[in-house]
Amino acid sequence: MSTRWYPLYQKGNPQLRVFLPNFWMKLVKPKFSQPPNVVKFKVSMEMTKRDVRNYLEKIYKIPVVEVRTQIELGPTKREPLKGYIVKDEDVKVAYVVLVNYQLLHESFLPITNLLDNLSHYIVMSPVHIMPYYIY
After folding, report:
1. Residue 93 or residue 59, greater confidence
2. How many CB atoms lie within 10 A of CB 35?
3. Which domains does the chain have, with CATH numbers?
4. What is the Cα–Cα distance from 6 to 20, expressed in whole angstroms?
């Protein structure tokens, strides 16, 4: 599962080693409107719900209420010249329910421009968690 090969640790080796996770997450704008405390991420296909929760809680210190994942099928289209069908890769999507959206805004400082574009998500006070469904 690992795509990185870390050098073996040798006693007395003074190099600082930073071990990064083999997973990636990308914050995206949802296709359909969601409650303000729900955020959509495109994630690595190998990630589970527990991995997504631990990634956000341990690395970014964002409290997570619930995580739901699903696999979105890649679009299929007919190649114009040859006529055969081409299918793009599938993508795993995670919908994360947060306690307070402002915590996400403060934690992801490098992507503030993206979050400013998602202005309909910004909530300045804690949001009451209500049941909802994704269609």
Report:
1. 93
2. 15
3. 25-121 (3.30.70.330)
4. 10
Residue type, 11: K
Asked if 88 contacts 107 with a C-beta cutoff of 8 angstroms, the reply is: no
Distance CA 89, CA 76 (A): 9
Phi, psi of 127 (to 5 degrees): -100, 135
Give the Cα-Cα-Cα angle 92, 95, 100 (nearest 5 degrees).
150
Bridge partners (DSSP) listed for residue 38: 97
Helix/strand/coil for 1: coil
- Do 76 and 85 contact (CB within 8 A), yes or no? yes
For residue 120, give both structure tokens.
């309909």
Beta-sheet pairing, 38-43 with 25-28 = antiparallel
Give the separation between CA 132 and CA 93, rounded to whole angstroms: 17
Comparing C-alpha atoms, which of 123, 106, 125, 126 is closest to residue 34? Answer: 123
| pLDDT: which is higher, 74 or 130 | 74
Query: Model's pTM, two decimal places?
Result: 0.63
Instruction: State the amino acid at position 56 in one-letter form.
Output: L
Q: Could you give the CA distance from residue 127 to residue 98 in angstroms, rounded to a whole number?
A: 9
Both tokens assigned to 101:
């959206």
